[in-house]
User: Fold this.
Amino acid sequence: MHAPDSGTTLQALIALIAIANPLAAVPVFLSLVPAGDSAATRQAARRVALAVLCILAGAVLIGRLVLEIFGISFAAFRVGGGLVVTLTGLDMLRSGGGAEPNATVSQSAAEHLIVPVAMPLIAGPGTIITAMSMAARAADAGRPSVMLVAVAAVAGFVWLVLALSGRVQQRIGARGQAIVARFMGLVLVAIGAQLVLGGIADFFDLGFGAKRP
Assistant:
């Protein structure tokens, strides 16, 4: 009984971590926390991890129902998430993403820890849809709690990655952080465009893009 549950949990955990990819959110996260302040970094990491936990747990429990109530398709959800990611990338390209060395996390920065860092950069459309799909399969197999265990483990991994990112910030300095932030801004614009195009293709059943190398 326990072996299949453990195997299913591990499979869900690996899939969610691979899609969430919290490492990709590190440059944006670092741009919103004070440089060299490890306590503030850990606090911000806890805030993001808790938000990711709530978002993914909500997706597992009621996500599909919410989309159905509002008549939102997965394709439209991907397009919306892609637009948010694209706008975030454009902001990073313009500003360079640098935080003041002695600043504290402002209310605006704290809000941006949730959107777009927690969602959609980490708990994005792909992660949420994956969680919904695997939750449906787990429920069919009579193990609905499996996905909640996997989601909690993912949130813990997110906290670990972001909490350690402060050390990276101290090493690369403000100039290096600005360079990385601008580069990642360009990457985020491309990711957002891919999400939008993929959502449009799914909505109109065009069938392009996904099979291209």
Q: What stands out?
A: Confidence is low (pLDDT under 50) at residues 98-105, 209-213.
